[in-house]
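Please produce the structure of this protein holding nicotinamide-adenine-dinucleotide.
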Amino acid sequence: MEKEPSSWEDALRQFDKAAKLIDLDSNIYEILTKPKRIIQVSIPVRMDDCSIKVFEGYRVQFNDLLGPTKGGIRFHPQVSLDEVKALAFWMTWKNTVAGLPYGGAKGGVVVDPKKLSEIELENLSRGFIGAFHDFIGPEKDIPAPDVYTNPEIMAWMMDEFSRYEGHTVFGVVTGKPTEIGGSLGRLEATGRGGLFVLEEAMKRLKMRKAVVAIQGFGNVGESFASLLDRRFKIVALSDSKGGIYNKRGLELRKVKVHKEKTGSVLNFPGAKNITNRELLELKCDVLVPAALEKQITPKNANHVQARIVLELANGPVTTEAREILFKRKILSIPDILANAGGVTVSYFEWVQNKIAYAWKKEEVEEKLKEKMVTAFSDIYDVLEKYKVDMGTAAYIYSIKKMIKVLELRGIYKAGVCKPRM
Ligand code: NAD
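Below is the modeled complex.
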């Protein structure tokens, strides 16, 4: 049996497919598929029992052709360089899709943050900045939250960077609490951006109502669920421990209270416990993977019953699985479009930090809507022109934009160099 591709191999596979369709110049291919910088560090952390534990950390700055690099930091036991590289690559294309003046980056630490006390977590977050201080900054590389990192962690990181600099530097990270330079609307931005593109997709497919199943009940999954109105019925939700299902619908407010009390959505009164795998194969209109990568693969893509897959996580649907869904006429809205709302409002936060002014929430949401709707419509045009799945269309769209940037910056102009004999 063929080995499942790693996240990085799969990211390249998706890129290759689009590159082939537009006959991408091989020199440009080389430039766009090699990371600019990979930094690996060891972060010593003082634990509560006074021992020192050393954690492995990565930051990959993939491409800065459009501006400073930008992307979140993940704290998770399964973090690897392969995964961080793929996530940094995806950030590059996501920022291009969203029309942001950023390149792509990502960071990660191999750690199970649930096993750390709050002080240990703070020490690790500050240690991360100590290790990466020389490589980040508002004009260089700007981290943000990702899996198991949050506004509190961003606050510690901003504070630590400011200590190094000798003055407060809000713009070094985004996703901060609003009291210290965070933007209104950032917390739910990924979910809200996802909802904007989902609404556009539903218009195209002439759907007015939808039964929804959501995998992952963290920042992204929970905030997306909270934004759904009467047009939507949530029948399934899950977290790392498993999922719950009730075909008559789940009352979100009560599920939140239950999760707060018990630490999981499992055993919610009136609902049936299901596995994360079962959730992906449920009968519904909209399936929302909002947890981790490689959830829908060739193994289960044929069992997906939704009409739309909204990829709110990064890399939840593999390239091959996207092809299977496309053949089955299921619209999979790719991660680099579907979850671009988070980085878009992070960009707004960075702009507000630069001008030292805070926008109203409505202003942030209006600007976000404009960016998401435009990106959806531009990519849908490519999908119709090339008759490909939306993931491939998003890559064609963003690679073409990047070729233009390369040409304008000059030094990489394809085809103008004559070999000297
Ligand atoms: P989070 O840490 O807040 O939540 C992650 C959720 O996934 C939790 O509910 C956790 O229980 C669940 N989970 C973990 N392992 C799981 C598993 N094996 N099966 C099912 N569920 C599991 O993280 P988040 O910020 O919500 O990020 C979720 C996804 O969205 C990630 O892929 C992330 O890269 C992506 N994303 C996040 C943002 C953002 O702004 N936070 C922006 C764009 C994309």
